[in-house]
Amino acid sequence: xxxxxxxxxxxxxxxxxxxxxxxILPEEVVLPELTSGSADFSKYVAIGASFTAGFTDGGxxxxxxxxSFPNMLSKEFAKIGGNVLEQPLMNDNIGGFIGGSPxxxxxxxxxxxxxxxSGPYPLGIVPHIGDFTPESPTTDxxxxxxxxxxxxxxxxxxxxxxxxxxxxxxGSSVGNPYFARMASSPAATILDDAIAQNPTFFxxxxxxxNDVLGYATNGGDNTDSITPSTTFDFVxxxxxxxxxxxxxxxxxxxxxxxxxxxxxxxxxxxxxxxDAETAGRLTGFFQAVAGIFTQVLISQMxxxxxxxxxxxxxxxxxxxxxxxxxxxxxxxxxxxxxxRQMTEDELLVLTIDQGAxxxxxxxxxxSNEVLQVLGxxxxxxxxxxxxxxxVIAAVNGIDDGDALDSDELAEIRAATDSYNNTIExxxxxxxxxxxxxxxDILTELSSTGISFGGYSLNANLVTGGAVSLDGIHxxxxxxxxxxxxxxxxxxxSFGSNFIDSGNTPNPSDYxxxxxxxxx
Length: 519
What we know:
The chain is α/β, with parallel strands linked by helices and 519 residues long. 37% of the residues lie in helices and 10% in strands. It has helices at residues 2-22, 50-53, 62-66, 69-77, 146-149, 177-180, 190-195, 209-217, 229-244, 262-265, 276-299, 304-311, 354-358, 368-378, 385-393, 406-428, 438-447, 476-494, and strands at residues 44-48, 105-106, 125-126, 154-156, 201-204, 249-253, 272-274, 321-323, 326-328, 339-341, 347-348, 363-364, 395-396, 403-404, 433-436, 450-452, 455-457. Helix 8 (209-217) packs antiparallel against helix 16, helix 9 (229-244) runs parallel beside helix 16 (406-428) and helix 14 crosses helix 15 (385-393).
């Protein structure tokens, strides 16, 4: 027994000896020294729209501007001789201009219980939280700050389309108030003011984004039309040509598919949830609509078989559980009543009035008079023309401005693809241009999500971490990922080594949502 323990002790000593010999601490990792490659960052100028400005949570405010992706980039560029980014800072952290709305906050009731989904704002997103009454914005839109604070190297102008970058008078009192604050003169253009600073490096971001976004956020109702592709091609090539003529190098971006943003994906198109009884009543109502319209067509000398076939599309069935909403569509020969049920791919906008949806918007607005006519039909009676009209008029389809139908989505996709073909062709043919593919980044965020610096980011509203409360613009952490992708593209195209040398934004330094007390 003693011999056995002696052998065990000797064996243990052997293992410990081996561990001591092999327990070699890893050498400290030494990162390479930062180099700029062939790029010159001594005069960096950022050109673009709201993403460049740092717009977030439905507003522009000091903290969001300080956390703009161009400011993040300039901090890295400064390590190898880059300039400090001069920004046209707002007056406060409330956001917006005097007389306008402040930025978005989370909403909760006075008793501090979350009231998500109440009112016209999805998920309870309104410009206040709890018993906090937001202060009024203090930034004067008519106060030009160029002479006292400019010139500015962040030329991000919220709302700017591609056609506005060279638009004479865009900085006047009747132009864009964001540019009016920082324009060198009322007749100045964004591009002229940028080029006047003799940039050695530039970013030209999301040109084409607002060219489709206004159309999309308005539900394709044509109050804000899509910029024709031929127009975009001309102005984009002109912009880049003028910037490169200064001897600068730069980065351009593709245009994301805006329909992937939570502004269009948060409110489900099948959120008409019904119990079995209500589903049966709605099915019966639309069968009545089809029957009434059949008789209307026959009275207009349409052959009965043809009348029945045309009216049959309005006998929309409903079932227990989730159902898709009814939307209004243009009246046509094939759809003379101008409504139908949404298809799987069609979208609702974030700002749709969810209170109205609960009261019949998107299905049927029943009144006592309509119910009386339905009772008459069930009893086998024949309604008058006026009574029949009441039933058809009770169909309460979602307005064009609150939804994107298949045709409108196809228009947006076609324009975006055309813009991106132009952008990618120019970037691929010019060694002085790097490309960041924001289209693919947003698609990844909206599908699988992205892992970045120990964080998981996706495009879900509020909880996803990448997109702010307005459903369109990024959070500060989302902008930090955008800055990272810019540095990655710069390394690839110009031989710098920001990524390998560890000189990138730290996502933990940037919030996903700003505190309501920030002001």
